[in-house]
Design a protein that fits this description.
With 65 residues, this protein is mainly α. It is 77% helix and 0% strand. The termini are far apart.
Amino acid sequence: MSKTLGIKIGSTIYDRINAVRMTEAERQVAINTMRDAELIVDAMVWIGKKFEKLGTLFLNPSLKP
């Protein structure tokens, strides 16, 4: 991930990664790990929302008394 993309995201995590004294290779590993973690969390949230929508299809109350 480029530094400009980290700046565009505006995350303090990326600011902290850039502020820590480490080699460029270690910094790249840290940034890639954060990106992967964000993708995993986004996927889990997306799946959760899909299950929620699916649940509403089957849990609708019946119109018959």
